[in-house]
Write a structure and sequence with these properties.
Blueprint lengths: L1 E2 L2 E4 L5 H10 L4 E4 L6 H6 L1 H19 L13 H26 L2 E3 L3 E5 L2 E4 L2 E4 L2 E4 L3 E3 L27 E5 L3 H13 L2 E5 L11 H13 L3 E3 L4 E6 L3 E5 L4 E4 L1 E4 L3 E3 L32 E3 L10 H15 L12 E4 L4 E6 L2 H6 L4 E7 L4 H5 L6 E7 L5 E8 L2 H4 L1 H8 L4 H6 L10 H7 L13
Parallel strand pairs: 1-7, 2-3, 2-8, 3-4, 8-18, 10-11, 10-16, 11-12
Antiparallel strand pairs: 5-6, 6-7, 9-17, 13-14, 14-15, 19-20, 20-23, 21-22, 22-23
Bound molecules: flavin-adenine dinucleotide (FAD) and nicotinamide-adenine-dinucleotide (NAD).
The site of flavin-adenine dinucleotide has 37 residues, from helix 2, helix 3 and helix 7.
Cofactor: FAD
Keywords: FAD, Flavoprotein, NAD, Nucleotide-binding
Family: Belongs to the class-I pyridine nucleotide-disulfide oxidoreductase family.
Length: about 450
């Protein structure tokens, strides 16, 4: 056994920069990774999915251009689309490897598990350190369904290895992955059916977000099946799913996107006193400390909101804490987005969430058809909503559904980080004609101005 300064388990989005920084400071750092360097985000998450959606949404927008008087002949070279996705993934992955190597991190390509207090074994290597950081992420949670096991179903792991476009795609799950990848393949040409066990898509969002997305997906030709479960799966070259309402659906491909489970099974945490919650996530306190001193956990495995920028920010905060700064993980404004078309850009609380916390809150909503830019570009789906505290006038949250709202929502992120009031937004003079000019217009609804609120509308 060797003694080192720090051990990082998992090359996730927080673990890599932390290992690099510590190594650059001259510490002896060992990083264990059992799979490809860069974790879910680079290998089977954000990077390949967004490169894939760049192609898919280009097709969607080309088809939609007919309403502008333009007709395109769309010819999808699926194999070229996926080759490009894989080459971007490869280049990101190589970049990570070089970064770790040049910083002097000792990378061990093996599955790691605890073999004693702050002692970790992976492959032939056993190391002990005063500092251990767990950044092992999550994997697909596969439901137990009669006949599913052993069939060649897709998850986000093998989706990006597809070489041919499946003529028909069945998707289980109406969350982020099911909607992004389902709409993506539909736009590239697969006849797609999405099976949802509840009564709406993205069920953590407000109902009108779900309705807007459902309408947009239907316009892409996607079949939506609500309030049904998959009871049986048969695969004989083709997948046949029997649903709880008796209906049968068939497809050449089945994507299972029904949630995630933490990668903690292999860790043998009992050997070092790290406790897990009832679902297997690592329990941490406000400062990322597990129940074992000297061992920290960051990112998805610590049940942080499962986004790359959160894992990255966990690293920045943990680094501050390790350097003696008085930081916690709780005082941050977190946003996220769904990269469907329309996109859903979100930050902070919804009206219902604010009211449940006892805040006297109010929400205003501006439909996208009140924004000149949207009319000029014939963009029909969406709305902008802001939630404010009526006592303090502070902005509490925003939901933006529409064109590239993942970009636009940063206006709210910054305003909220600055603890700004809605009056600041109301006073702002945004450029005409932009989607962004809808934001002060939204704020002006709070002073009672009638719609339309944008110039030329
Ligand atoms: C399809 C998809 C699309 C996504 N799109 C987005 C997006 O657009 N934007 C966004 O912000 N987020 C997105 N996410 C979420 C994002 O990928 C994760 O939140 C992000 O990767 C953070 O992960 P992490 O740092 O916790 O660990 P991960 O990136 O999951 O990395 C964990 C690493 O630990 C390794 N590991 C696990 N156990 C062990 C062990 N015992 N020993 C050694 N190594 C181990 C794993 O192999 C993995 O490489 C997406 C996720 C998916 C699945
Ligand atoms: N744009 C992004 O930032 C992005 C994109 C993809 C994934 N992610 C991250 O990855 C996480 C996981 O995504 P996900 O889509 O797997 O999970 P999710 O939790 O978003 O959605 C899973 C869906 O599957 C449904 N479901 C569960 N069991 C089912 C069953 N047996 N049959 C049918 N439906 C079932 C759930 O009701 C839910 O709607 C997300 O929560 C997110 O944090 C982020």
């Amino acid at each position: 056994m060797q003694n080192v300064d720090a051990i990082v388990i998992g090359s996730g989005q927080g673990g890599i920069p932390l290992a690099v920084d510590l190594a650059k400071e001259g510490r002896n750092v060992v990083l264990f990774e059992r799979d490809s360097l860069g974790g879910s985000c680079i290998n089977y998450g954000c990077t390949p999915s967004k490169a894939f959606l760049a192609a898919a949404h280009t097709v969607g927008r080309a088809r939609k251009a007919e309403s502008l008087g333009i007709r395109f002949q769309v010819d999808v070279d699926f194999s070229a689309v996926m080759e490009r996705v894989r080459s971007i993934r490869h280049s990101f992955n190589q970049g990570i490897q070089k970064r770790l190597e040049s910083a002097g991190v000792n990378v061990i390509c093996a599955e790691a598990s605890f073999s004693g207090e702050r002692t970790v074994t992976g492959g032939e290597v056993t190391v002990q350190a005063p500092l251990v950081v767990i950044n092992t992420g999550t994997s697909s949670l596969i439901p137990e369904i009669n006949g599913l096991e052993g069939t060649p179903y897709l998850t986000n792991r093998n989706f990006f290895d597809l070489k041919e476009l499946p003529p028909r795609l069945l998707v289980m799950g109406g969350g982020y992955i099911g909607l992004e990848l389902g709409q993506g393949l539909a736009r590239l040409g697969s006849k797609t059916e999405i099976i949802v066990r509840g009564d709406r898509l993205l069920d953590r969002e407000e109902p009108d977000v779900s309705e807007t997305l459902a309408e947009a997906l239907r316009q892409d030709g996607i079949g939506l099946h609500f309030n049904v479960k998959v009871e049986k799966v048969v695969h004989d070259g083709i997948f046949t799913l029997t649903l709880s309402n008796g209906e049968q659906l068939q497809g050449e491909a089945l994507l299972v996107a029904t949630g995630r489970k933490p990668n903690t099974n292999a860790l043998n945490v009992a050997a070092t006193g790290v406790e897990l919650d009832e679902k297997g996530y690592v329990k941490i306190d406000d400062r990322f400390q597990t129940t074992c001193s000297g061992i920290y956990a960051i990112g998805d495995v610590a049940k942080q909101p499962a986004f790359t920028h959160v894992s990255w920010e966990d690293y920045r905060r943990l680094k501050g804490i390790l350097c003696g700064e008085n930081r916690t993980r709780n005082d941050r404004v977190l946003g996220y987005a769904t990269y469907t078309e329309p996109q859903v850009g979100r930050v902070g609380m919804t009206l219902e969430q604010a009211q449940k916390q006892g805040i006297k809150a109010r929400a205003v909503t501006l439909p996208i058809n009140q924004i000149a830019r949207a009319i000029e570009w014939d963009y029909k789906f969406g709305f902008y909503r802001m939630v404010v505290d009526e006592d303090t006038d502070k902005i509490l949250g925003a939901t933006l559904v529409g064109y590239e709202t993942a970009e636009l929502v940063h206006v709210f992120l910054s305003l909220m980080e600055a603890k700004a009031t809605w009056q600041l937004l109301e006073q702002s003079v945004h450029i005409h004609p932009t989607y962004g000019e809808g934001l002060p217009s939204l704020a002006r609804l709070l002073v009672g101005e009638d719609m339309p609120t944008c110039p030329n509308k």
